[in-house]
Design brief:
The complex is a heterodimer of chains A (166) and B (101). Chain A has 166 residues and is mainly alpha-helical. Chain A folds into two domains: 96 residues, NADH-ubiquinone/plastoquinone oxidoreductase chain 6, subunit NuoJ (Four Helix Bundle (Hemerythrin (Met), subunit A)), CATH 1.20.120; 38 residues. Chain A is built from six helices and no strands. With 101 residues, chain B is mostly helical. Chain B has one domain: Helix Hairpins (Orthogonal Bundle), CATH 1.10.287. The longest helix of chain B is centred in the last third of the chain and has 31 residues. Chain B is elongated, with a radius of gyration of 17 Å. Classes of the chains: A mainly alpha (166), B mainly alpha (101). Chains A and B meet through helix 1, helix 2, helix 3, helix 4 and helix 5 of A and helix 1, helix 2 and helix 3 of B.
Chain lengths: 166, 101
Amino acid sequence: MIDTWQQIVIWAIGIAMTLTAVRVVTAQNVVHAALYLVGTLLGAASIYIMLLAEFVAWAQVLVYVGAIVVLMLFGLMLTRAPIGKTNFDNDQRLIAALCAAAVFGVTSYIMWDAFKDEKINFAREVGTTTGRVGEVIFSSYVLPFEIISVLLLAALVGAVVIARRD
Amino acid sequence: MPVTFFLILSALLFSIGIYGVLAREHAVLVLLSIELMLNAVNINLIAFSALFQEAGVSGQVFALFVIAVAAAEVGVGLAIVILIFRNRQSVNVDEMSLMKW
């Protein structure tokens, strides 16, 4: 019974994510496209929670929905994008759709072929995984973690230098 | 729940992102499509992390690193878009052909 409900919810989230993602790349209003992206990102966050990754889910909500989408909206405002309906697609639409379909066909066939018998066991062993994520980051992955912080600092300084009015 | 559901969902989101990158003209919309592709990769990482639970949580750590790099990429990308808009009064990527041979 629980399993059936879980599957229904996961399918609903997956379908909602796909529909909002399609609207992100087809919406003719730039602000609507950015707001549809919020739907896809929140769907991804709920899938992370289902897959026992609570910390990543909340980092996703904070960083993506809270910061990146707001940054995108500021970018749209600062470039004085036409807010009303206009055409933002170029004439490569057919080739782009063919490329996307080819990539989808190849990757999904490979994934299906390699993992069709594997099932995720949702029964968690002990509590949350957040504590283990912290331990792993600050033991095995401490060097990449420090490099990421330098990268973020460099990106911060670089963005200020590039966008500054001289 | 079969793991292929999540893998194929992420492949679908990735190809939607590819379509957006190739078919959109507005530079900020291209950046939005790149975010879609990065999210597809994250779903893949988390799904494999849940599939191989006894192997630890490295998949989740890599997803966090991808999120951090995506934040840095969006910051620099939007700064470049704003600079191009200031110089050329347009953010149409098809008109940015100055460095094309």
